[in-house]
């Protein structure tokens, strides 16, 4: 199968290393490269070498593939769609790994042209890779993948393909919205950062780099669970869409209360390297980095989407409102006014209202297509 991977970061290189063994893989990157490359990599501690794969910075060439995997962060995806749209052929499948962040709204014209758009609920691997070193390190692989596609009728076919390519059991989700609303980074990152910075005043500094989950405490877990409860309430209001596969964090982490959640999150080895978003000052101490992806990605492509849908279906969201008020106070960025109308920065987010999906009926119809 001809596959193009967009993105030479941790995940993109991990995908190249695995998929190149049995497929004709091309990596799209503008970084310095030769026409063909290979990677040294480890898969859960076992060393190996990838098969050689093509590398290009030619967009037309990259889009000749049968399957395109986009591993770009959420804030780059609208431009990605604009870049590939003139070249992608009918019958191609474009996958976003992971698929949250409202990517489906950018892709409405592609879907209408006969392109299948799909998203994985979570990444297949925790990985540490380096293009400079031509290496890909897969620290751990998911036991199961979950995927959804638009048009909806394509989901089973895409699930079978992902299972074959990644050699990981893959479940076909009932709704694409179960990808968009998966309670991952937009809940964990924003709740954890709020726990650290909720009392921050301009000029405050920190003597050292803080580690994200070392700072996590039971108060943070209580806030996270309140946020998660609001998300579950939103899902229930979106019937007839079946969003039972937006699994609550209580269930996902087997943590029914705040204390259990704190213990669980602190026990996950892959989380140990996550840092609080801080930046080093000239004086040698640290201050918040409001330009970190925990803010610039998880708010406009996560929290704002969830709040917009909550407004659409009439669910009160005090925890989500607290986050948006906090973000506005610290950065001046505002997506929604208190009356639910669009604020000055609404257009920089992927709220459904920005794509003509501003009422519940039209929103549900979009996902049923």
Describe the structure.
The protein is α/β, with parallel strands linked by helices. It folds into 2 domains: 2-180, NAD(P)-binding Rossmann-like Domain (Rossmann fold, 3-Layer(aba) Sandwich), CATH 3.40.50.720; 185-368, Orthogonal Bundle (N-(1-d-carboxylethyl)-l-norvaline Dehydrogenase, domain 2). Helix content is 37%, strand content 18%. It is built from 15 helices and 15 strands. The protein has helices at residues 10-19, 59-62, 77-84, 103-106, 108-112, 155-166, 177-180, 185-197, 218-236, 249-252, 258-267, 293-296, 299-313, 318-331, 360-368; strands spanning 2-6, 24-28, 36-37, 40-43, 46-49, 53-56, 67-70, 93-96, 116-120, 125-130, 135-141, 145-150, 170-172, 278-280, 286-288. The strands form 3 sheets. A 9-stranded mixed beta sheet has the order 3-6-2-1-7-8-9-12-13. Helix 8 packs antiparallel against helix 9 and helix 13 (299-313) packs across helix 14. The mean pLDDT is 96.
Strand order of the largest sheet: 3-6-2-1-7-8-9-12-13
Q: What's the helix-strand series?
A: EHEEEEEHEHEHHEEEEHEHHHHHEEHHHH
Q: What is the makeup of the main sheet?
A: 9 strands, mixed
What is the fourth-level CATH superfamily of the largest domain? N-(1-d-carboxylethyl)-l-norvaline Dehydrogenase, domain 2
Per DSSP E runs of 2 or more residues, the count of β-strands stands at 15
Tally of distinct domains? 2
Distance between the termini: 27 Å
Q: How is the quaternary structure best described?
A: single chain
Quick one: overall form? globular
- Average predicted confidence as pLDDT: 96
The residue ranges in which pLDDT falls below 50 over 5 or more consecutive positions are: none
Radius of gyration: 20 Å
- Kindly name the structural category: alpha/beta
Beta-strand percentage?
A: 15-25%
Please name the CATH architecture of the largest domain: Orthogonal Bundle
SS element count, helices:
15
CATH topology category name of the largest domain: N-(1-d-carboxylethyl)-l-norvaline Dehydrogenase, domain 2
CATH class of the largest domain: Mainly Alpha
Report helical residue fraction: 25-40%
């Amino acid at each position: 199968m001809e596959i193009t991977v967009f993105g030479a970061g941790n995940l993109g290189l991990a995908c190249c290393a695995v998929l190149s063994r049995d497929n004709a893989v091309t990596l799209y990157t503008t970084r310095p490269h030769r026409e063909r490359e290979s990677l040294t990599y480890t898969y859960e501690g076992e060393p190996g070498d990838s098969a050689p794969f093509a590398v290009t910075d030619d967009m037309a060439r990259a889009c000749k593939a049968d399957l395109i995997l986009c591993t770009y962060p959420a804030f780059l995806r609208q431009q990605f769609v604009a870049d590939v749209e003139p070249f992608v052929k009918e019958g191609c499948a474009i996958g976003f790994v992971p698929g949250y962040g409202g990517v489906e709204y950018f892709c409405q014209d592609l879907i209408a042209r006969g392109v299948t758009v799909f998203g994985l609920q979570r990444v297949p691997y925790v990985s540490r890779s380096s293009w400079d070193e031509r290496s890909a390190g897969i620290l751990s692989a998911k036991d199961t993948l979950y995927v959804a596609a638009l048009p909806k009728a394509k989901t089973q076919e895409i699930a079978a393909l992902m299972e074959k390519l990644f050699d990981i059991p893959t479940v076909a989700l009932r709704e694409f919205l179960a990808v968009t609303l998966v309670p991952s980074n937009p809940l964990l990152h924003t709740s954890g950062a709020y726990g650290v910075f909720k009392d921050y005043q301009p000029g405050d500094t920190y003597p050292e780099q803080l580690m994200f989950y070392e700072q996590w405490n039971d108060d943070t877990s209580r806030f996270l669970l309140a946020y998660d409860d609001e998300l579950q309430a939103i899902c229930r209001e979106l019937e007839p869409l079946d969003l039972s596969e937006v699994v609550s964090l209580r269930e996902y982490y087997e943590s029914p209360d705040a204390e259990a959640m704190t213990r669980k999150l602190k026990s996950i080895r892959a989380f140990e390297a996550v840092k609080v978003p801080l930046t080093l000052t000239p004086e040698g101490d640290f201050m918040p980095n409001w330009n970190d992806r925990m803010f610039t990605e998880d708010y406009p492509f996560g929290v704002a989407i969830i709040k917009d849908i909550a407004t659409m279906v009439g669910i009160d969201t005090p925890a989500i409102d607290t986050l948006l008020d906090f973000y506005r106070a610290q950065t001046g960025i505002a997506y929604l006014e208190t009356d639910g109308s669009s604020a000055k920065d609404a257009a920089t987010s992927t709220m459904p209202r920005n794509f003509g999906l501003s009422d519940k009926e039209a929103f549900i119809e979009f996902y049923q297509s």
